[in-house]
Write a structure and sequence with these properties.
The structure is a homotetramer.
Chain A (H helix, E strand, L loop, with lengths): L1 H9 L3 E6 L4 E6 L40 E4 L2 E3 L7 E2 L7 H13 L4 E3 L17 H14 L3 E4 L6 H7 L2 E4 L7 H8 L5 E4 L6 H13 L5 E5 L15 H10 L4 E3 L1 H5 L2 H8 L3 H4 L2
Chain lengths: ~280, ~280, ~280, ~280
């Protein structure tokens, strides 16, 4: 392993260790064209050299032999056998509101609490969130309920503050291609929940994840939250076909956000549940 | 009932009887503005006058007290408790192909066979279907397997021929706003499977169904088959949020076509099955 | 020429003569793969064999050496030097309305009158047009003003009636992929104005034109009228980039419909005029 | 004026002076509901109190009596009578390339030079720009040709550096809703060219401009550069209808970027020129 990484560095490239179930993959970036396989022949511990032709190299399904499991808190994982359920308010508004929501999530069997302390709003005059006070309320709710906290980070300036309080750093849809922010969370030790942009293709979502991964943070969770189409009867168009494709294309876990996807409370259960086709009404 | 319908006709409007579980609704069309309730007061058997404000009056959920159940063959229904599974080839190409497909559908637990004898193709030089010979092959497969046949009708000229052989008349996505065809199948005695247009809104789909319903054919099944968006990794974007909305907005049954929705075989099961979120790969 | 066409028929294919400025092209359809050039060598009058690789063969820019000029009335052309201006009401509603509009078009320097006698409406309860009476009013306006008439044909049943009165047969956006109707107008002797479908790609528009062309009617005018996107501030999104591409891709004339494209009166002049960038307000 | 601003501040709101041709408007933000007119009655110099009901208050056409003219360099304006033509390479790659391009722009009658020194790229492995060295080359080209420089700022960290060298700060499409960056350039003294996001509505573009304006920078130029739709034959769909609407809706100048809009060199002139309808080929 070390020998292989050293060789990669000698060649002027960057090695990325990606631990798998049966073996550890070493992703290589920084090369312009293909790398001749014999540069690595004879190195102890190297089983195989796989050329990844897609532009997202490290998050590609081929890059490792197992699916990535992200542990967002001790025993709370996503990407494995467990189905992660996350609930909570859009914005943190008051202690009462957060506590009530957190207890409801806990009681309903949810595994994590979400809520926005920093809100990137379409209008400069809309409520922009309680900021640090909101983060403190989320942390207090975690104390009480034991639920880890997922919350949005909206810029590099406030990233250190959000990192201090949150368990998972959420990158919002509008920031999916804010590359400076992606690189910043790529250097964080906290897991990242990356939401698909309103009109981002599946490929662009994977490339955004690659930005984070390439900086060293391998704890990336993708999130389908609905795309923008001509349809106005629903808030967005939840693209569940994209989830199917993503599971084929990447080893990263994929989350679904049915609330933003449809925009009405009565759509959440059918879109998330296991028997929506018959039950939906 | 008769008295109420007679009164509707006297007023110069058109009555549409829509049988429900507990009572029969009489949809009224042809009126320009609202109808004063007292025009119907005192008539025997009239329980209530409900103003439907939406432009699709007869297919609106409010128009009747129960969901429409369409029986496509004796004992084969859609819209009730049973989940209808339809399978088969895109186009009918040969006896062998149809028979093999029909037997596979039967064996797999499917309830109906689909296949195109008339194919509306983007290119004038593409195979346009086996036409009547294709219909005969479908009918032969029905004889052998007992599966009712769903097949597309592409114009009013060939409607009588398709009606003769098919159990369900399919209106393709490109014909969803072919109003002359909608009116023609509205006068048929066969059930109609109406596919959503590539860029049709939910409201436009309901209005297309209203065209059929208004002509007297109440056996209409809606079908979500994916819409056209910016995403190119999937063939279409299957809009399952629309299914949720449709079940709220109309009493008609709603079908999902995952094959056209995603365009790859490995996406069909996850998109149709009950545990796609975890299983999708 | 005749020898070449005869040879094409002998081979089991269909020849299509497309007259050009300097020479006449013979489009060949019905072949599955490429045609060996030597099958035509030595034939008198054959200058060149050009393989058209695009799926739209006859309307492809390569198919002929000059742009198609369609004469919609004596001296009124589109596709040449003249800029064709067409005006008129959405639907024909009354003699007064049509006459007033026709005179305004004439006075404003327009070259043709448009107006719908058959209206394919989203709702079955909306006004569907004055039908034959509307056609008669349009013809009367033509008598008075000398303006040729462009009007929509919505189905094959009423095509003979529309053909009798109209100078140009319009295929509406919702019927762009109604292939039976395309084939029917392909057998007409009247020019066809083919409107782009709401979510039709440029390629699909060309293939729809190919349907008409392949049936023998070479007088086809394409029309960009706006596509359906996520934007709701304008009625549609007028795709002027598509016009640029179409002029490169096909020898057919291309029209623009700014009224449907933007949906507000004050947008028509800026979108159609020659100095919209500065003047638009 | 001062009295009016003082009153606004006394009420706990924020005044924004917007100089116009005949009078100066004072935009008020920070109020939740409407403001009773009599709070300002009797104040010297106050002509009128206009309630702006749209969510973008300061950039709304109603907010002032004249169009905003932005001067990007002495004598080089946009928003007035002059048509501003900007040219240059996508990325700055070398001294030679920039100089050649700058001289061509100058010779062709262009008024400003554009070129990217910081490039937000979809892939983390793509060339990210020459950074400060690129800015220096742009400045050198300005020295030689006299053309002011428009260049992208991609994050708040590098804003001070870009501000030092550039004449106009460009906010790229992917950053249109990067609100922290919008606020940062809102505090700059340099004019801002704000590009419309790939799937941003007209309203969202105006709200993004409002973010900048609300921070005090009134030198904002909007830019339509094509939106993302289902069409793949062109790189984007240039939405010229949006330009028409924007000129009605806001007093800010609106630029068009035909290069990104269509993505092929031969489309730039037709889309930008004054007689595109006939000339486009």
């Amino acid at each position: 392993m070390d020998a292989a990484c050293a060789r990669v560095r000698e060649l002027g490239f960057t090695p990325h260790e990606i631990p798998g179930a049966g073996r550890t993959a070493i992703g290589i970036t920084g090369n312009e064209g293909g790398i001749p396989p014999d540069l690595f022949s004879g190195l102890p511990g190297v089983a195989q050299l796989i050329a990844v032709t897609r532009p997202y190299k490290l998050v590609d399904r081929e890059a490792t032999d197992s699916s990535t499991v992200v542990e967002i808190a001790p025993g709370v994982t996503v990407g494995g056998e467990q189905l992660l359920v996350v609930g909570g308010p859009c914005s943190v508004e008051s202690r009462d509101q957060v506590m009530t929501a957190a207890r409801a999530v806990r009681k309903g069997g949810g595994h994590a609490l979400r809520g926005g302390a920093f809100k990137p709003r379409t209008s400069p005059y809309a409520f922009q969130g309680l900021k640090e006070q909101g983060l403190e309320l989320l942390a207090e709710a975690r104390e009480t309920t034991g639920l880890p906290v997922v919350t949005e980070v909206k810029d590099t300036e406030t990233l250190p503050m959000v990192e201090r309080w949150a368990d998972v750093l959420q990158i919002g849809a509008r920031n999916m291609q804010n590359y400076s922010l992606l690189e910043a969370v790529g250097s964080s030790t906290k897991p990242v929940l990356l939401k698909r942009g309103l009109s981002a293709t599946i490929k662009e979502l994977l490339l955004a994840a690659e930005y984070i991964f390439a900086k060293g943070n391998q704890q990336v969770i993708l999130c389908e939250r609905g795309i923008r189409t001509f349809e106005t009867a629903t808030r967005n168009t939840l693209d569940l076909g994209a989830v199917v494709m993503l599971k084929r294309m990447t080893h990263l876990p994929v989350d679904v956000d049915p609330s933003h996807g449809i925009g009405v409370w009565y759509g959440v259960t059918p879109l998330a549940s296991q028997d929506w086709i018959v039950e939906a009404r």
